[in-house]
Amino acid sequence: MSPKKIVFLIIIIISLLIINNLAHSIYSLWQKKHLVVDARSELEKQKKENDDLKKKLSVIEKPQFIEEEARNKLFLAKPGDNVIVVSQKDLEASVSSKLNLPDKRPNWEKWWDLFF
Question: Where are the beta strands (DSSP E) in 28-110?
Answer without folding.
Answer: none
